[in-house]
Known about the structure:
With 277 residues, the chain is of the alpha/beta class. It has a single domain (2-276), classed as 4-Layer Sandwich (Purple Acid Phosphatase, chain A, domain 2), CATH 3.60.21.10. The protein has helices spanning 2-10, 20-34, 58-68, 88-101, 125-129, 132-142, 179-186, 210-220, and strands at residues 40-43, 47-51, 74-77, 106-108, 148-151, 155-158, 188-189, 196-199, 206-208, 224-227, 236-237, 242-244, 256-261, 273-276. The protein is globular and about 50 Å long. The chain starts with a helix and ends with a strand.
Amino acid sequence: MSQQYERMLYDPDRVSALTRDEIERLLEEAEKRFELDPNLIRLSSGRAIFVGDTHGDFDASKRVIASYLTPEDRVIFLGDYVDRGPQSLENINYLLSLKLAYPENVFLLMGNHEAYAVTPFYPADFWERLDRELHQRYASVLAKLPLAASTENGVIALHGALPEVENLEAIDEIRVGSEAWRQIVWGDWEQRNGGFLGDDPFTGRPQFGEDHFQEMMTRFGKDLLIRSHQPTAPQSMFGDRCLTIFTSCAYVAVRTIAIVDLEKRVNTVADVIVESF
């Protein structure tokens, strides 16, 4: 079965021709695979390539994989694979196929756009175009995505904001729909003092200030946060310890990714390679 999905690496556009039966088999296999991963992915060797929101930008995902997927490296997508962009179905099916083909090299974290069934939002063009059966199948699969990635050299990566939990290991116990989960997939950062700053009156997204950032980074024993989710955020915040990246033409003209050498200590954004394409 994995050989079938490995072919996607060399012929990614084949994903556009998947039949209904093939999509259903893909979802079944992917759900089983995600059940094996913890909420917190731990990375220890090689390089970690962090990819921001792709939002239906199938071309971005193909270019990242073609350039950076190697046996020694890990490619970590930070969520929001669907909606807004022109090829959501191709994008998510391509990434699910790669996860099955290279389960120790490709990791897909959860963003808020993977959880429409939990917290509806707009625009949700991917979800609204699915028939009822496929809607339920995709929702079931994507509800099992991990929530964060941690490196031994000082990095934590996730979609939005840091969850208010006791320690790093507690992320493994976070359940979909909980407040800590909401902080991860929906949370925004504001470049001002304070902890929880309330929900944004327009978007309803929880907002957090630098005090919350500093406290949680200390609890987790981390120096740098890499995240996506928030197109209005500065790329670097909080003393260059919070890096926001985007990898979708739905947001920006220039896509960005972050490359971390897992063998070297990381303290700030200056210790990370941010590449654009």
